[in-house]
Amino acid sequence: MLESVQIKPSLTSADQLELGSAIARISRADAIHLNITDGHFCPNLTFGPALIRAVKRRSPLPVEAHVMATNPETIVQWALDAGADAVIFPIESCTSPLRLANHIKSTGARAGIALSPGTSPSTIEYCIGHFDMVLIMGVEPGFGGQALMDTTYGKVSRIYELARNTNPQLDIAVDGGVNRGNIARLAACGARSFCAGSSVFGTESPNGAIDRLRALAMGR
Ligand code: DX5
């Protein structure tokens, strides 16, 4: 049984006219996950720095900004300026991941690197020791409500293997398609935090869904 895992609801999947009450209904989460997209890296426009600031004012939970953009350096800085506690950016569009990771950490925020489904874990082997978090996309970036790709399990296991010696504290996160039916297997592969949209906000009781997902991931 695992000692702890983190459940991080993704506000992309909440009712966009009711974000304040959505935040109140996830008080037992470990963090709030905000997708910051640019309409280029993935085909959607979601949130921006103003929402990061608003959520920080409303909730005591850490806020993580998941930047999905073709120019992550610019938007990462906006997220940091807005007070994000963790900032994640995609390996696919970043030309200097180490420089950006070090910059994020120099501000006191946690640095995360995201891998889209088509990206091999080996692409981050050289820099995995410099990140607090690796976020493995279980779906193509852009929209909530998609099914987890089967290839995700093997990628989580591979990242776990890569990190075991060089960065054992690495937070291995999965984003996209996480639900009650697959979270235990993802945890068994080495994932320790879970960005969940539909499986939290698509229920009558988001806090209850968080509790259930956490218990399943911990093997209870
Ligand atoms: C994809 C989105 C989703 C979202 C989670 O770009 O990032 O992964 O956070 O939504 P669900 O859990 O519905 O896939």
TrEMBL record:
It comes from the Bacteria. Its cofactor is Zn(2+); Mn(2+); Fe(2+). Pfam families: Ribul_P_3_epim (PF00834). CDD domains: RPE (cd00429). GO terms for biological process: carbohydrate derivative metabolic process; carbohydrate metabolic process; generation of precursor metabolites and energy; nicotinamide nucleotide metabolic process; purine nucleotide metabolic process. GO terms for molecular function: metal ion binding; racemase and epimerase activity, acting on carbohydrates and derivatives. Keywords: Carbohydrate metabolism, Iron, Isomerase, Manganese, Metal-binding, Zinc. Homodimer. PANTHER family: RIBULOSE-5-PHOSPHATE-3-EPIMERASE (PTHR11749). This is Ribulose-phosphate 3-epimerase. It comes from Enorma phocaeensis.
